[in-house]
Amino acid sequence: MEVTDPAKTRPSCSETAERNGKDLEVLAGIGQLLATQSGQRQMLTAVLDELEEKLGMMRGTIMLLSSDGSELFVELARDAPSEHRQGVRYRRGEGIVGSVVQTGQAAVIPRISQEPRFTNRIHRRRTQARADASFLCVPIALGSEVVGTLSVDLPLQPVEQLQGKARFLGIVASMIAYDVKSRRIESLQRQSLEAENLRLRSALEEQFRPENIIGNSHAMREVYLKIHQVAASDTTVLIRGESGTGKELVASAIHYSSPRSQRPLVKVNCAALSEGLLESELFGHEKGAFTGALFARAGRVEEAEGGTLFLDEIGDFSPATQVKLLRVLQEREFEHVGSNKTVKADVRMMAATNQDLEDRVESNQFRQDLYYRVNVFPIFLPPLRERKDDILLLADHFAAKYSKKMGKEVRRISTPAINMMFAYHWPGNVRELENCIEYAVLLTGDGVIHGHNLPPTLQLPAASEGSEVGLLKARVRVLERDMLTDALKAAGGNVAAAARQLGITPRMVRYKLKNLGIRNR
Fold it and tell me: Prior bond to 416 cis, omega within 30?
């Protein structure tokens, strides 16, 4: 294609030498940039800046192939608004850049406005800009493998000069190619390592997960990791959390994963015993030590010899008992009630509480030295409302447990019932959820746990008022919602089929759907 003046003018020998010298200077600068720039985008930006500032190459654009090699995307585009380049894709063979990728050959366009294949989708040049500019596009390739394209705009000039510029740009593209390829391989290796790390971490977390605890939420995986970390040692553990979160299960998991697993795990609920009884229960007593002590009795500390002693609700200890417990923790020795003979104790201590021990220390209700002895390795159990990902898993587990126990088949939990469980705040935590599922399994008659099978406490928020009438209306709405939802699921969303199943007319079904706010998808 012929180009009009002033582009026909041939350069003199001195101009050619000067241009060659400048080209070499730019190549040296680009080589330095490749060696010093750390990030790929920063490096490519610096290369395009060099081409524009030193050689007047405008609208520099670098496109790279996607990982599957099917299309090109914009990695960097000088002077192109972000809204123009975002989402721009070129398939192989599409437009100039697509042809360059497909053929592996550079494209030299003397005048952009006269090239019908030019799509102008990235920079969106105006008509005059296309008429006054030439376009070069070269493949970024390593050997025969093309990984992208490098393109620039130039002022109009003879084809011979453009071809020389294309050869120069090809050298730059080759320099870029090795860096891009290396970074891509490094990125793929990093992604592969990250994926392998995630796989191994998941496998380890599954290995760490105790068989007696249900839950896959992030909070519970942290608990499993702590159980694994502390189980092999004799370190004193303090398990903290609200009532019903499963603190006793964690204590059991630690004991049965420890070297003491073949020895006894003795559990003492400190809140259930008075001060006098608690001391005797823990340390034992001699015959005649107090009224009613008709014979000597070994305490729980002795029963746990060689194993683990788990003290539940340790915050309820009296000051006198706290002193004796501190001695067991520090010296591993104690005396029976009514005796001054010292007994050695080889036990591991674990404790649990749902109280704020720090507050009790501040108010002098709990000894500070005992607090530090007990709180060596704390494990916090999150309340159920903070691990809602585990609700369905726990509900399924309890449904299977109680269906087997009661000899009833429970195939599934309905969607409305699941929604009610997710909406509830669970003040009683896992223990309350278990009781709710036991209640629902007892009431279900068709193998499905419906919303109306759940206890009234889960349905109270639906009541519009506190009266019995308001509660009745809410319960009726829950029942209707359950039956309609299940019927529509069974009918694949067909209103007429659902109406036949329910024994009402399709018009009534549509009315109820609208009234109850149910979407029939």
Answer: no
Helical segments of 456-494, H only: 456-459, 468-490
- State the Cα–Cα distance between residues 442 and 403, nearest whole angstrom: 8
Q: Domain with 373 in it: what CATH number? A: 3.40.50.300
- Greatest CA separation for the chain: 123
One-letter amino acid at 207 equals Q
In this structure, are residues 311 and 268 in contact, taking their beta carbons and an 8 Å threshold?
Answer: yes
The answer on 439 and 450 residing in a single domain is yes
Distances (CA, A) of 176 to 98, 173, 185, 341, 393: 19, 5, 14, 84, 52
Task: Show which of 366, 382, 398 is a domain's final residue.
Answer: 382
Q: What is the DSSP letter of 94?
A: S
Same domain (yes/no): 361, 389: no
Say if CB 4 and CB 143 are below 8 A apart: no
Spatial distance between the Cα atoms of 301 and 308, rounded to a whole number of angstroms: 9
> Which single residue is written with the structure tokens 């914009």?
74
Amino acid 465: pLDDT? 40
Question: CA–CA separation, 308 vs 188, rounded Å?
Answer: 49
Tell me phi and psi for residue 10, to 5 degrees.
Answer: -80, 140
Q: How far apart are CA 112 and CA 95, in angstroms?
A: 12
The torsion angle over the Cα atoms of residues 256, 260, 266 and 267, rounded to 10 degrees, is: -50
Asked if residue 395 and residue 362 are part of one domain, the reply reads: no
Look at residues 132, 165, 187 and tell me which one is the last residue of a structural domain.
187
What's the domain count of the chain?
A: 3
Radius of gyration of the chain (CA): 38
User: Where residue 502 sits, what CATH number does that domain have?
Assistant: 1.10.8.60
3-state secondary structure at position 213 = coil
Distance between CA atoms of 28 and 76, rounded to whole angstroms? 22
Per-position DSSP letters for 312-325, written without gaps between them: ESGGG--HHHHHHH
Give the per-residue pLDDT at 4. 44
∠ CA 237-240-241, nearest 5°, is: 155
Using an 8 Å Cβ cutoff, are 212 and 325 in contact? no
CB 329 within 8 A of CB 349: yes
pLDDT of residue 430: 94
- Separation CA 254–CA 227 (nearest Å): 6
**Residue 86 to residue 64: CA distance in whole angstroms:** 14
In this prediction, the residues of the chain whose per-residue pLDDT falls under 50 are: 1-8, 461-469
pLDDT of residue 384: 93
Q: Which domain holds residue 265?
A: 218-382
Closest C-alpha to 388, from 413, 424, 431, 417 = 424
H or E stretch at 74: strand 71-77
> Does residue 203 form part of some domain?
no
**Contact yes or no for 355/338 (Cβ under 8 A):** no
What is the tens place of the pLDDT at every residue in 103-154?
889 999 998 888 888 888 888 888 887 778 889 999 988 777 888 899 999 9
90 located within any domain: yes
